[in-house]
Design a protein that fits this description.
288 residues; alpha/beta; Rossmann fold; 5 strands; 49% helix; 9% strand; globular
């Protein structure tokens, strides 16, 4: 039986865990991988920290995950290196599929679109692309709340390899994450156009808690599921000791300044921003 491949393009902090959980529960014969390979240390603290460093370098490597030298090769437009990294990733996926006896593979990860997307799309013609999209201001605020190192998972915004090129010297930290949100959306669209992956199946993070909306989304993926119960949201902020994501008026002002600097051609391609009211994100955050 031919294996069907589904890959996800997302900026991250967008409900990947919840999407993976729903797919596991409702798609029979499907192997769902949530940002794998993850490292589950075998040694106790403090040795686990050093074990993680060694395994990220030599075992479950950054390159296998889709960052590290993958991002460097993407920036350098080194297609040969990217093809090697992608083949390693696909070989690893193949072993997982065989072990699970699955006929559908659903990859839910923010790393796919960071560099492995083009060689994987070339190697797996006919793959399905899901674009998981969170409100951009809420997404930015979520990253800022966790004090994320932007350049751990992203290349410089002024790279020639990007769809959207901006000078990072002119961007505040929050704007870096807004750029990553836009770049992810644009890369997914460019990938779909280049490899004939249209239509992209767009899923809004806000819909992950909406059973009828998710039922319709999975129908667009070709799965005839009578009714989906999303279950309890899987919010890792709470699990990791972080509070809820609260948008402020300053966040909205920052977004408006960022949007004003975007080229008209990029704005035209950012369909989800058409008619987007930034103030609505603030209104939703206000207590009632």
């Amino acid at each position: 039986m031919t294996t069907r491949y589904i890959f996800t393009a997302t900026a991250g902090r967008s409900g990947q865990n919840s999407l993976a959980d729903i797919a596991r529960r409702y798609i029979p014969g499907c192997l769902v991988q949530f940002e794998e390979p993850q490292i589950r240390p075998l040694t106790p603290k403090p040795f686990a920290y050093y074990e993680r460093l060694v395994r990220r370098r030599f075992v479950e490597t950054h390159e296998l995950l889709g960052r590290g030298r993958v991002i460097e090769a993407f920036v350098a437009r080194d297609d040969a290196a990217l093809a090697r990294f992608a083949q390693r990733r696909l070989d690893w996926i193949g072993r997982k599929i065989e072990g699970a006896g699955a006929h559908i593979y659903f990859d839910v990860s923010k790393y796919f679109i960071r560099g492995l997307h083009r060689p994987i799309a070339r190697a797996r013609p006919g793959m399905t692309l899901v674009r998981l999209v969170r409100d951009p201001i809420v997404n930015m605020r979520s990253f800022l709340n966790r004090d994320k190192n932007f350049y751990l998972d992203n290349n410089r915004p002024d790279s020639d390899a990007n769809q959207l090129r901006l000078d990072p010297a002119n961007l505040e930290k929050g704007e870096l994450f807004l750029w990553a949100w836009c770049e992810c959306y644009l890369r997914a669209g460019a990938l779909a156009d280049e490899f004939g992956l249209n239509p992209i199946v767009d899923i809004a993070t806000a819909d992950l808690n909406d059973g009828p909306a998710m039922t319709r989304a999975f129908a667009r993926l070709g799965f005839d599921i009578p009714a989906i119960d999303p279950g309890k949201p899987l919010n890792r902020n709470v699990a990791n000791g972080y509070g809820a994501t609260q948008v402020s008026a300053k966040d909205v002002e920052l977004f408006e300044r960022f949007r004003a600097r975007l080229p008209a051609a990029s704005l035209e391609r950012l369909k989800t921003l058409h008619g987007y009211d930034a103030r609505e994100a603030l209104r939703r955050a206000m207590p009632t």
